[in-house]
């Protein structure tokens, strides 16, 4: 017997939550897993309202909100479109089927953006080409999805909206394989990416602006080890200089990142040189002023070749995470194309580059620092894998050593 919606149910298509219209029969007001004790702690009358109540707690944490909304949205749409049942009627068996679906979202034309054309490109949520997925999820991504959905279901149970958590039966701990970073670029492949960036056209004003932006973005992601959301969500005013214990002036970047935490990233001499180069390409001062609101990465079009005033005052509108992601993917695709042009022997390396994303640069930064024998504790702090120390003298000295080793051993060498 098929689990797809019967013809008597109104046909639904994957649509973003903010414009999703759910027929009353599927809205969850009478879901089979709804709590029946009458002591709900939220006013939600249906599944969509319940999800919105869950997300409302995260409105001030943009990255977390986006990730949580994505996972709740995907599950809700799959439940409606593929099973023809409300989210509040999902069973444990349904959740297992959903995990299998994540590994291969079919039919792709319904679920995957740019299906049949390589996928991967993100579209705005209001675009008719928007789809919930950009391809199959890796096992690690499926685990992360399950963690987030477990948080959703647990909260809805605690809020008195659901009677039980259908994922609870899957939470037995399993033996984990030894961790191994595989999504990074070995030095030769990283050099191919840098060579491609160096070859980008610079004939027109827009070409030059794009070249400088790409070079700066890849410098920031690699030397700074930033996440793509951190590159889009922080400002140039977060660079600052301080004198270390031997009197040397060193630049740092305060990054507000994952988990709503701040960390200090060593702004090496190379990084500051590239920042100066990038700012001057916009007609700005070489170094940012304290608390300057200029985004770390600027949109093209915020300056004009014929307007010196506009060049001196670039737009403070930051690029979206999707826009930054597209820039990075386009560069990897261009580098892959150059490899393919050399012949079939380079096809495997080109395939690997086409799979790469901005987060690969973060893994690449960590791997290359470790290869250069930067102390792993310093790598951890550079990438924000542990909370920052406070202002004690001992930790301040340790910060100075971290800056020195990062500056000496972690280089981009344009």
Automatic annotation (TrEMBL):
Domain Core-binding (CB) per the UniProt entry, residue ranges: 45-157
Domain Tyr recombinase, residue spans: 180-407
Molecular function per GO: DNA binding
Keyword match Kinase: no
Stored SUPFAM superfamilies: DNA breaking-rejoining enzymes (SSF56349)
GO CC terms, sorted: cytoplasm
One Pfam family here: Phage_integrase
Keywords per UniProt: Cell cycle, Cell division, Chromosome partition, Cytoplasm, DNA integration, DNA recombination, DNA-binding
PROSITE patterns named among the record's database cross-references: CB (PS51900), TYR_RECOMBINASE (PS51898)
Entry keyword annotation includes DNA repair: no
GO BP: cell division; chromosome segregation; DNA integration; DNA recombination
Subcellular compartments: Cytoplasm
InterPro entries the UniProt entry points to: CB (IPR044068), DNA_brk_join_enz (IPR011010), Integrase-like_cat_sf (IPR013762), Integrase_catalytic (IPR002104), Integrase_recombinase_N (IPR010998), Tyrosine_recombinase_XerCD (IPR050090)
Protein name as annotated: Integrase family protein
Source species of the chain: Paraburkholderia piptadeniae
